[in-house]
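S1.2 Input.
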Amino acid sequence: MSSNVIDAVKHMHIKRCMYPNCDSKNTIKSHALQNNGVISRLAVDNHVLMPYVQRSATYLEKNKFFRKKLKSIGKNEATTFYGFCKKHDDQLFAPIEKEEWSINKDNEFLFAYRTLCSQLKNKQETVARLKAENASSEMLKEEALPVYDLDRVKTVCDKFLTGELRKSPLSTIAWQLGKINFAYDAMYQPSYDFSGETISEGKDKINYPLFITVLPYKDHSIAFISWLAKDTPIFHDLIPTLKKLSMKERQIYLTNVALRGTDDLVISPRVENKISQDQIDLIEGGYLDVLEAQTAMAKYAAVFQTIDKLSANIMLESTSLNLFEL
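S1.3 Output.
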């Protein structure tokens, strides 16, 4: 692969506005977490800490030698993606870009929709890079599955934006939590509910995502967990159980979601000296090793009937890091 091709692959972006029926290719760097009031609130000297994915020559190499590093990032670059043209970015997200946004159904939709679009664009660009690198058909198929899952949700959400649907198609749990020194947005696809019923492989092997945003809000914090309302029965007891979690369990669950599946974790440098090396290792990808070990132990226990089967309870297993204690 020539150096010119390698450089093109490294910096490959799909620059097309994601607003329904907009064909503009003049996309700006949208923030998955708003700069005004969230990232700027966490920043010190206009910088924040983020688990940064080291650039390598190709996507395949990056996965082969995958490791994140907790690094200082300029606040104007944090959580950015080429999501929308300036017109639609300004118009659509104005209600939550204001300093004094309120908690309501419309704003809950906007937070979830922005996470959805950020994750979808990231997955689309991943597939595009793999095609450019002549990846195997098996790898392409595996990486394309989340694109289909997210596009299914976006198609429904777009109907709400265009007025075809009068009511938001998303349901949301909103948790008010204590003061925090971090924020994140994530897409999380649970495999099991809390009783061990399978979620992620229904008919046609469709995955059913949750869209999660945790951010400072006034003198405390707020967490939004959203999903496509019509998918509610498929989650079995997951949603009712999440609603009943204790404050400590909510903290553990949200911390583990952040460690498991997002590159958009933003931490204030004000607490940098409080983060131990063990905690840094978890943030930089070590939690996936812990989760793999926990899953292996759970499978072993299930075989020998120590436990009945795997379940979402694994996401309530605490580690050395609780983001809410930083």
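S1.4 Remarks. Residues 1-10, 300-308 have pLDDT under 50 and may be disordered.
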